[in-house]
Structure formats: C-alpha cells, structure tokens
Design a protein that fits this description.
By secondary structure, this protein is α+β, with helices and mostly antiparallel strands. It has a five-stranded mixed sheet with strand order 2-1-3-13-14, covered by helices on one side. A five-stranded antiparallel sheet has the order 5-4-18-17-16, sandwiched between helices. A two-stranded antiparallel ribbon has the order 6-11. The N terminus and C terminus are likely disordered. It has 21 helices and 20 strands.
C-alpha cells in the first residue's frame, strides 16, 4: 500500500509520481491537472508548479554558440573568437566509442525508453522522498538535452542560468513535456548528436569536438575507448573530474564509465580492464580565444573587425542584436587583410622600432579605389603587460583607438592645396611666404569669420626660408607661411568641406575646427583616416570608405548561409585634374623635397612628411596608384619630445618626418608591392618656378618642417596658433602627460595643451 500522510492521502512526492506514471504510460497529457504543492520537499518554487497544459507547446532548439574563425584575404587563419568554444559536428563524425560511453554512464536505457525513463523516475522519487529532498536524479539524455537548451538560451546571465538549472519539480515537468516533443520530432540519433554537441566538458570546451581537441588535440571521430570514457565521465561534474587538475579523480571516474560499458555489454570485460590500465594520455591544447592570439601581428586588425561587426547596423538594428549574433558565433569571416602586405608592415615595424622604445609607431595600408585595409600593425603588441597595449593607434576612438588620434603636422597641407585647386587657384600660385608673420585676419569660415584677436604669429623652419614661393616649391619645402596665406586667400570653408568629403575627422569623431592652424596639422587624426584620405589622390579623386570584411558565412543547423557585409562607398571628393595635380606636387616631395628618404625607386609614388609640436609626433603618408599608407611615430601619451633619442637602436638628435616614419613606410610599401602591378600617375605639367632660393631647406639637405605650436623640425616656435576659444586665442602652458588612452594635442596647438 502506498504510504499515507498522518492526515490522510498521498504525499506530494507520491502524488507527483502517480501523475507522471499515468501521463507517460497513457502517452498523453492530462489536460487541466495542476500539480499539488511540493514545497515541503524543496522541489517547487513559490509553493506550486505550473499546470502541464499551461506550458507552451513548442520548444525551439536554440542556435548553439560556436567559435568564429577570422581569415585573411587568402583564406589563412588569423584568429578564433568565441563566447563558447564549440564546433558542431554530425554524429557520423563522433567516435562510436564516445557515443556508447555517454549513453552507458548517463542513460543506459536510452534506446529502450521514451522521453522519460519511468523506472528511473519512480526510483529517484522514492529515494528523494526518503531523503527529504533531491538526492538522486533520473533525467534521460533527452531531458538533459532540454535542460541544456535552457542553459544555452540563458547565455551568460547568471539569473537566467540559475532558473534554468534550479532543482524544482516545475522545471522537471517542463523538461518532461519538451522531452516528449523532442522524442517525437527528432528521434534517438539526432537527440544523441545534439546532446554531444551542446554539453559542457570543462576547460572551456563545449561539445565533444572542442573537448576532444582540448584534452587530446584530435577530432572527436578519432577518440579511442579510454579517451571516450574519460570525456563521458567528465560531464557529470566537469570541475570534480577535470583530468588536467586532478588526474587521480579523473582516472577513477573514467574507470567507472568503462565498468558500466562492460555491464551493458558495449565492450567486453577484457576490453574494460585493458582500458582501465591505460594512462590518461592527455595532449592538452591551450584555449586560443580572442584577438590577443591572432597571428601575423594582426591582433589590432582583428579587434577592428570585431568592432566593425558590433557597431555596423548591417549586422543588426541594435547593439544587443549585434552582440547576440557575435556571441552566437559559428561565423567564418574572410577579411581584406593581405598576408603579404601584413607581413611587410610587421617586418618593417620590427626593423625600425622596438616595442620597448619610449615612442611607438603605427602603420596602415589601404587599397585606393576599393577602401580595402590590407595591412595594419604597430610596434607595441596587443596585451596588458609591459610595453603592450589594448589601444589600436591606427583607428578612431570608437573603433578601439586612442581618445583623439595624433596631430598630423604638415601631412595636412595637401588637403589645403587640393581645396585651393578646386577653387580655381592655379598650380603655379605664388605667395610672399615670409619667414615670420601674423596670422591673417579676418579669415572667412562657413559662418562667422575667424579673427586673430591675440595677434598670434607663426614662422617657417629657418630664417632662410623666405618667399615668394610658388606652390610646387612650397609643397616640396613644406613652407608654413605659404599655406597659411593660401588658406587665408580661399577661406577655411572650402578646406573643411573637402575634408568632410574625405571623411577626415578628429580621432574622437569630432569635425575639424574652422581655424587657420588646421593647415599646420594641429588636430589629432588616426593613421587609417589619413591613409584613406591620401588614397583618394591615388584613385584620381574618388574617396572610398575603408572596409575590413570581404564576406561572412554562418553555420546554422549544419548548413552554411551567407550574411550581408558592409560595402565600401566610393564618392567623388575632387576632380581628376585636382587629384592629378596633387599627385604631381607630392611626387616632388619625394623626388627633391622633405621625403627623399622615403621614396620608392621602382614605381611612381608620392607622399608628404609631417612633424608636430616639439617633435612629439612624426608622420609620413604616401601612396602609389595602387596602394596608400600612413605611418605615425610618437608617444601615445604625447609626453616624449623626439630629440636626442634612440628609436629601434638608432640614435637621432632630431626626428624628422622623412627620417623615421619615412623609411618605415618605404619598407612596408616595398614588401607589400612585390609582384604587384606598377601603374603610373597622370602627371600635370607644372612650370618650374622662375626663382628658387638656396635657403638650406630640404632641397639642400635640410630637414622637414613640421606643424604648429613649435612644430617645425628644428624645434622653432610658432607662437600662439589657434587656441581652444574658437579664435585661436590662448597661450600654451607646459606640457603634461596623461594615461595612454588620452592623447594630447586637441586644442589646436599641434600637441601643446592648455
């Protein structure tokens, strides 16, 4: 006779057992029956459990989170990233030993019973009633699969995970209903396959394929008997039976599985004994998750790809949608990164700048006409240790870069020249370009004119640099006063309208200020931004937004589907004639101007040097018709003046844009272009100047000029410049340093802070 309570009637546990037995044996769900309270046994939450019919009918199998593989443009692996390390495989690709081992230890009657094992449930309920709680489980593999579905759906939310795993009768009833559905819908083989792909095996490995790779460095299809038994034993308690940290406990558990396999006649007793005597034979593969493990020095590019995915609406309308898709994984992302170019960038950086140097360098290569980022690297590797960083010096803040970018010095001057040419000024335009002058006032902007309220002045690199100069000579010598006169002549508005078309913004995303000192490179800009803008000259005036992703496929239910990816948008930023003229002018910089040390000898190339306030930044930005690149050298914190300094083991009394970043650019471009076509520029005939001055400038071996606020390469002070008051007012205070993410030089003084 069933045991009754003192007050009469069956106990809650006995009533539940009777209900389950009737439901399963009848093969139907009793509509409208609500289970009684079981709170006395600690089995139900909030005193009652849900009515069976009230549980939703359809259980949707969650898309299992898997690892994502990031590839270069040739299909070579860069990195794997994942929320959960999992690779879904078909049952045919799982060792038969593994299939038998998991069934034997977790649900030996799996092929005999339905969704639930009635004998096991009654046995467990009776045992639990005697213990006054949940002492024994009776979940079948199908029920465990349902529970794992709930856990997978919960993701990393601890509250949802707790709800998915709580020991309540209500959860068991939900498992029962959904288990019945799965048995009818999937069948035994598919249930076993899904279970082996979803369950956790410890050591960050989800699913048997990841587990086989983690513990034995082999695919799941090649697992032998003892290896399969070990993995099957881990499932019950991955921390307790972790073979990496507790070999003795793992062996004991493995042998229990082997014994059970012999008892259910999956293997012979002799096979069991031989396997029990075998060593664990671990060949552990360390988890390689995330961009920090990227090869080819591509960690920062990898993070850029991740940031593109998480911010571009093409991958989801909301931030949460994009994050969910990224964490779900199962993606194969083919990127634009060219392995030849990337290797060349890294080799050049390593040969010129040490990671332990007091300054760093960043280099980015972009393909004109397509916007493809083909190379991206920096001297300080990705990481959190000494001489490492998590900041990508090549990109804007919202893509993982510094707060503001880096002042660009004279590399900004070609934008002013292009704007002037677009306004109709001839390429022979001449200005007096005195050695020293006050900023012209007023200067027209897109709104209220800028006025020189504090009588700010600027000067050229040396007293011998005194005009008049035509544009060709002024660009080659990088004459500061010439370009300030030019921007005064045409106004600031045409310049900022052009830079808007070139997507040239400050590293924090802000637009450039409408002040004359922008021509001297006073604002912080990212190398990727500069490379993409200069690529516009190479492509004869067509600006293309930078892209990093070629294609993405996602594995869903064993099938591959293609995802939409962001496309480069190409728009005309300037006329072909203007671009061709700038190309001609910047070819002169390399031929006979400040960039001679950077020039390529086997193909058409052009570029511009730049150095800023007290030599805190040095740049070279250049291009061929089919490749553009930007190289920055400086202190990420903007607290190092590059005078009397060792960089890459080489001493420099003064750092010039053509001397340090120039050769980095040259070597990176040379290697990247090996075996590539060598197209020519469409040169414009610019008459040679009638007069030239032997002024000891770059044509005569003199150094490059730089930017504002003391930004020429001899350290000559250009006083005042534009301050933070919109009119360029304010005098600089002594420089101070900030944490690495807070890049200085954002007050219009080329690196000098107010």
């Amino acid at each position: 006779m069933p045991k009754k309570l003192s007050g009469g009637g069956l106990s809650p546990t006995q009533q539940a057992a009777k209900f389950l037995g009737v439901s399963v044996l009848a093969g139907a769900v009793m509509a409208g029956i609500a289970l009684p309270a079981a709170g006395a046994l600690g089995l139900a939450a909030k005193g009652s459990v849900q009515g069976f019919d009230e549980i939703p009918d359809n259980l949707k199998s969650p898309a299992l989170s898997q690892r994502t593989t990031i590839l270069d443009s040739q299909g070579g692996p860069i990195a794997t990233v994942y929320s959960r390390d999992r690779t879904v495989v078909d049952l045919k690709n799982i060792s038969p030993y593994m299939q038998k081992a998991i069934v034997a230890i977790e649900d030996s009657r799996f092929y005999q019973h339905g969704a639930v094992d009635l004998k096991g449930i009654l046995r467990a309920l009776n045992q639990n009633a005697q213990n006054g709680g949940v002492a024994q489980g009776a979940s079948t593999l199908t029920q465990q699969l349902v529970k794992n579905y709930f856990v997978e759906e919960a993701g990393d939310d601890p509250t949802k995970v707790a709800q998915a795993t709580q020991q309540t009768l209500g959860r068991k009833i939900r498992e029962l209903k959904y288990a019945i559905q799965l048995e009818e819908k999937l069948g035994k083989k598919k249930i076993l396959e899904n279970y082996l792909n979803i369950t956790f095996f410890g050591e960050q490995a989800y699913g048997v394929e990841a587990a086989a790779q983690r513990y034995f460095s082999k695919p799941a299809k090649d697992l032998n008997l003892q290896q399969s038994a070990l993995l099957a034993g881990i499932v019950q308690s991955p921390s307790r039976y972790d073979p990496v940290n507790d070999e003795a406990e793992a062996i004991k558990r493995r042998n229990t599985v082997l014994q059970r396999m012999a008892e259910v006649h999956d293997i012979s007793p002799q096979e069991a004994e031989e396997a029990k005597n075998a060593k664990l034979g671990l060949k552990v593969s360390q988890p390689k998750n995330g961009c920090i493990t990227a090869v080819k020095g591509a960690s920062f590019f990898c993070r850029y790809v991740e940031n593109v995915f998480l911010t571009d609406p093409v991958f989801g309308k909301t931030k949460e949608d994009r994050a969910k898709l990224w964490n779900q994984g199962g993606l194969t992302i083919r990127t634009t990164l060219d392995p030849q170019s990337q290797k060349s960038v890294q080799d050049s950086i390593k040969s010129h700048v040490n990671k332990s140097d007091s300054v760093a360098t960043a280099a980015t290569l972009v393909e004109p006409g397509t916007g493809k980022i083909v190379g991206m690297g920096q001297s300080r590797p990705y990481g959190y240790g000494k001489n490492e960083t998590e900041y990508n010096y090549s990109v804007d803040r919202d893509m993982g870069g510094s707060n503001f970018g880096f002042p660009t010095g004279s590399t900004f001057k070609p934008f002013v020249a292009a704007a002037a040419l677009e306004q109709g000024l001839p390429p022979t335009q001449e200005y007096s370009a005195p050695y020293k002058m006050s900023y012209p006032s007023p200067v027209q902007t897109c709104g209220k004119p800028w006025t020189n309220q504090q009588n700010e002045t600027l000067s050229n690199e040396s007293e011998s640099e005194e005009g008049p100069y035509p544009l060709k000579t002024a660009m080659a010598k990088s004459v500061n006063t010439y370009f300030v006169q030019m921007i005064s002549d045409i106004g600031i508005c045409p310049v900022v309208k052009l830079t808007d078309k070139l997507h040239v913004v400050q590293g924090n995303g802000d637009k450039l200020p409408e002040v004359p000192a922008i021509t001297l490179g006073s604002k912080g800009i990212a190398p990727l931004t500069m490379a993409s803008a200069y690529a516009t000259f190479a492509s004869r005036g067509m600006y293309c937004t930078p892209i990093a992703i070629e294609s993405i496929t996602q594995q869903v239910d064993g099938k591959q589907k293609s995802l939409e990816v962001p496309k480069s948008t190409c728009t005309r930023a300037m006329s072909e004639k203007t671009a061709d003229t700038v190309n001609t002018l910047l070819s002169g910089v390399i031929d006979s101007g400040t960039g001679q040390q950077a020039g390529l000898t086997d193909r058409d190339n052009a570029g511009k040097t730049g150095t800023t306030d007290e030599r805190r930044n040095a740049w070279f930005v250049g291009y061929t018709p089919n490749l553009a690149g930007a190289v920055w050298v400086g202190s990420p914190k903007q607290n190092v003046k590059m005078t009397n300094i060792n960089i890459g083991g080489v001493y420099h009394s003064l750092v010039y844009g053509g001397e340090v970043p120039g050769p980095i650019w040259k070597d990176a471009m040379t290697g990247a272009l090996v075996g590539k076509d060598s197209p020519s520029f469409n040169m414009i005939d610019i008459p040679d100047p009638v007069r030239d001055h032997d002024d000891g400038g770059p044509d005569d071996g003199g150094p490059d000029d730089g930017g504002p606020g003391g930004g020429d390469d001899r350290g000559n002070t250009i006083s005042g410049n534009n301050g933070s008051n919109g009119n360029g007012g304010g005098k600089p205070n002594p420089t101070f340093s900030l944490p690495e993410g807070f890049i200085q030089g954002q007050n219009g003084t080329g690196g000098r802070r107010h």
